[in-house]
Amino acid sequence: MTETRPESDPGPDAGPSDDDALDPAELKTLIALLDSVNLLQYRLEQRLRATVDLSFVQFQLLIRLFDAGGTQNMTQLADGVVYSRSGLTYQAGQLEKAGLISRGPDPDDDRAIAVALTDAGRTLLRSSVPEHVRLARRLLFDPLTGDDLSRLAEIMSRVHDHMRAQPPRSADSLRGAGPKGRREPRE
Fold first, then answer.
1. What residues contact 102, with CB distance under 8 A and at least 6 apart?
2. Is 76 helix (H, G, I), strand (E, B) or coil?
3. Residue 156 burial (C-beta neighbours within 10 Å; 0-12, 13-18, 19+)
4. pTM reported for the whole predicted model
5. Torsion angle (degrees, nearest 10) of CA 20, 22, 23, 27
6. Which of 86, 95, 123, 147 could in theory staple to 101 by disulfide, Cβ–Cβ 3.0 to 4.6 A?
7. How far apart are CA 167 and CA 174, in angstroms?
8. What CA–CA distance (Å, rounded) separates 144 from 116?
9. Alpha-carbon distance 168 to 76, whole Å?
10. pLDDT tens digits for 73-106?
11. Considering all CA atoms of the chain, what is the largest pairwise distance in Å, rounded to the nearest integer?
């Protein structure tokens, strides 16, 4: 027999319902996942700042550009790294000042700004990625068996695909209209 919730509002002082709480296995999994991701990101960021003076977000932007063949527009980058467009504009400005990227009109969308990886950006990635791969391997992959890695890859791919199947954050802002009913230009 399944328990149903009463249709009346429990009131503002009511605690979380059973549907609002994670079961012990879900909670343990969520905490382990968040802790692991935070520790990995923290250690990678420490290494990035010490070796190439980049933040984790800046490194993600360079890697995404490299993976995309060297160029993406600002909206694609913001969605890819799950970062606000205003924050991304600042980070891109820092990378541009360092000569690691260039920005200009997007040839495919006159409302968008294209971001391109420069030769200096490619050189920095080629020189810094091997050390970061070693760190990621040591922290994330070394404690896993081959079977563990296969299972984790399958599970995380499914979770990733599920989360990425949701509309990107940029789609929310494009649905709305700007002042006087005009669409806001995209970065």
1. 96, 115, 116, 118
2. helix
3. exposed
4. 0.71
5. -160
6. 95
7. 11
8. 36
9. 9
10. 888 888 888 777 788 889 999 999 999 999 999 9
11. 65
